[in-house]
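so im writing up the methods section and need the Large ribosomal subunit protein bL21 record in one place, dumping it here so i stop losing it
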Amino acid sequence: MVYAVVRTSGRQEKVEVGSIITVNRVAGDAKGKLELPAVLLVDGEKVTTDAAALAKVKVTAEVLDDFRGPKIIIQRYKNKTGYKSRQGHRQDLTRLKVTGIK
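--- predicted struct ---
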């Protein structure tokens, strides 16, 4: 089984060919293709962590869609003072499908 750990938008994700991952909003090229940098590569029983060898590894993905995450409510409240504030946030996300690990 071949899989890789890639770095994207400040996090690391374990991916295989055909896996679908959700990451913070990233922009692909005009065709929706994207290349992700590998941090670790497992090819059968061989594990590659060397930076020089990983520079040659290409993990390609295609952008499936851009969407917004669930609404997160931020509330602040201070007792006995009448202070309360409420704020909402929705994160911009991208769904990626990994097409190749070479």
